[in-house]
Design brief:
Hypothetical protein YwqG fold; 8-stranded antiparallel β-sheet; alpha+beta
Amino acid sequence: MTDFEIARQIAKEIQEKHREAALPFILEERAAGLCDSKASGTPYLPHDTSWPLDGANQPMELLAQIDCSALESLPDFPHTGLLQFFIGTDECYGVDFDDMTNQKGFCVLYHEVVDVSVTEEEVLEKRPEKSDEEDVCTPFETEKPCRIRFAAPKSMKLTEGNFHFDGLFVEEWNRCRPDAPIEKTSEIHQRLKKKTRTMGGMCLILRKGARMGKMMTSRFATRWAVTLILPNMIHGAMIKCRIST
């Protein structure tokens, strides 16, 4: 077998062996309330909570906000309140590829109780001005927030962008190829010199659709598939989502 075939086989085996319950979902370009499940837009923030800032004291942007009442089929997630994911506005959306757990470029907030007296106007007043708005990068094609619509739960394979995938792949590769050991999966891409749509993870097998689960990868697309690997945000969990046409 060639190195590419070995890598592809290892990736498939890892995917099959590691599964978790997941919720498929799509993004709909229609109005979303302050406390609704949505991608982009104005986040809910309690009266005493300030707007999340990155390591350079610049305001982050809302990637996704989840109404946890929709997550009852996921046993390891909260089932009340709001779960929020914020990202930086640099070219990599806050990702530190040398340390995927570095939280200077992303933020996860969980609000167990939602105060219905909070208004969107109040939240927007908390957002500080960015020093240079022209340098703002966003994974969204549209400025309008998108409502997240969940479907029935499914079993999800561990995808290549997952925070845990790298260690599993490296371990199996070094077992199969002790004569050519690696420390990171990125070394495989360099060796094979294959064009992959990846930012920080193996993408030997690209998968369509969107799912949210304990083991999640982050594919954020605009109108068509644009792969974005976000940092490990919470318990090794990440988000993969796609704007529907």
